[in-house]
Amino acid sequence: MRVAIVTFDGFNELDSFVALALLNRVPGWRAGICGPGEALTSMNGVRVDVQQKIEFASEADIVLIGSGVRTREVVSDAKLMARLRLDPARQIIGAQCSGALVLARLGLLKDVPVCTDVTSKPWVVATGAQVIEAPFHATNSVATAGGCMAAQYLSAWAIGRGAGEEAARAVIDYVAPVGEKAQTVARVMGVVGPFLAVDGERASTSLSPNGSY
Amino acid sequence: MRVAIVTFDGFNELDSFVALALLNRVPGWRAGICGPGEALTSMNGVRVDVQQKIEFASEADIVLIGSGVRTREVVSDAKLMARLRLDPARQIIGAQCSGALVLARLGLLKDVPVCTDVTSKPWVVATGAQVIEAPFHATNSVATAGGCMAAQYLSAWAIGRGAGEEAARAVIDYVAPVGEKAQTVARVMGVVGPFLAVDGERASTSLSPNGSY
Which of A20, A174, A178 sits opposite B134 (nearest CB)? Predict the structure, then answer.
């Protein structure tokens, strides 16, 4: 699987790098920083080289859009947005925090519950999206997560969708704190597991959040 | 507070960037990637510019050493190790996973419990360190964490030591997943809180891990 971690200038390091590190743990997967230009500078001044051009997102099997302090400028750049063509029928797509603004701009969040962070919420609401008070939600092959550390949920879901629930459990188990492996896997899979059932739709609200998932 | 996120080639993105992102959330703090050379390449091929020379670690108020796939080579490089001078009497010092090998090499882990990840454990044990099955431990101003996602514990502890427990709570609250703020703060502070008491030493084993901390 080829994974594009779509990243823009002013990016939040947590979102892009948690996703990149976790998805690269899946055998055979290759996740890289995908963005405009040759290099990007994070919200805290870290300069990183772009590994894939922004156009790569159209070809990737999985596309995860990180957040940052300049996402409103990004989505108002029509020329840049035109370079980003996504297809939920063919791709697994996710966005973190303000990354939801990008998916909204691309018309991918119509009539579905959307997660984002407190700071981005007013802007996401302004796009007409239905923002919910939850860390993670997916509708079929499009997911959103809210709050930096929810990056682990978005990542676990993408792995689960692309490589199966056992692969997601294995990666979370690997990166979980020592001595907290089982409870971390239970917590993460409790959040994302229901969205891995039957074609990615929430199977039932009666599922225990920390149950068999 | 000036914070050095000590990073080497082959670094684990989770360790360095979780710490960098969290510590930069503290008003007035400045955390940057500190390492040898002009640029570093992560274990997954991400090239980042170094923000501070490795010698900056000697001047920084807080020094957090990330892990990576080449830490054994790093610690066997006497010339490189000689450039890294740390002082626990003056600095808040921490290491993540294989970063414990660096602290051991500098003689900072003598006769104290040490945390590291499963992969690094045999190498850390070989230095003579007492490795424990826990995600986090601190003795006075030197701490170690094991398992990538334990980076949040190391970061919360460093913030708590340098800016107080309330600052640590505020940062964890900010980055926690939406809808899980209170339980995330309770979990993280439950782990690191006991190490923030009375000069950083564990106050008492009778403290509830999810209690008033």
Answer: A178
Sign of CA dihedral B18, B19, B20, B26: positive
Helix H segments across chain B? 13-23, 71-75, 78-82, 99-105, 121-126, 151-163, 165-175, 181-192
Coil vs helix vs strand at A184:
helix
CATH number for the segment(s) A2-200: 3.40.50.880
Per the CB < 8 A criterion, the answer to whether B91 and B142 are in contact is no
User: pTM for the whole thing?
Assistant: 0.92
**Class of domain B2-164 (CATH, top level):** alpha beta
Per the CB < 8 A criterion, the answer to whether A83 and A101 are in contact is no
The full set of domain ranges for chain B reads: 2-164
Any A CB within 8 A of B180 CB: yes
Q: What is the ipTM of this complex?
A: 0.91
- β-partners of residue A144 are A95, A137
| CB atoms B184 and A149 under 8 Å | yes
- Residues A69-91: pLDDT tens digits? 999 999 999 999 999 999 999 99
